[in-house]
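Anyone able to model this chain together with tetrahydrodeoxyuridine?
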Amino acid sequence: MSLVDDAARVRENAYVPYSRFKVGAAIRSTEGNLHLGVNVENAAYPEGTCAEAGAIAAMIAAGDSRIAEIAVIADCPAPVPPCGGCRQKLAEFADPTTPVTLATTDGKRLETTVGDLLPGAFGMGHMDGV
Ligand code: THU
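re: yes, here you go
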């Protein structure tokens, strides 16, 4: 089963009573394990969390360290672009060359990388010497 298939499977569990827009994310960690996430919305709208953030949280909670590859899937006309906050979150736990597959439930695929999604990400090095 591909990482997109894993993301599609978990997407069904998304909690989206406000947007009705289900998103699933699947990470393969550098340790070789699978970590899944969905968007989880909240009546206080800004407190909702994205599928990517959920998958990263699952990876860290499981004791793994880095993203080797991630796939994100939604039911929309074109592959959904991760929000700005998730781009920064991905940059924290992946390399600029880490592959990202953005997929739609009707079979479209956009292959990109963490560095293409967020060139010049803020990182720990920015605080050297503080
Ligand atoms: N969403 C994600 O979970 N990931 C993305 O890459 C884009 C958007 C969620 C947030 C919100 O629950 C819904 O999709 C609509 O924006």
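Residues 47 and 65 are 25 Å apart (CA to CA).
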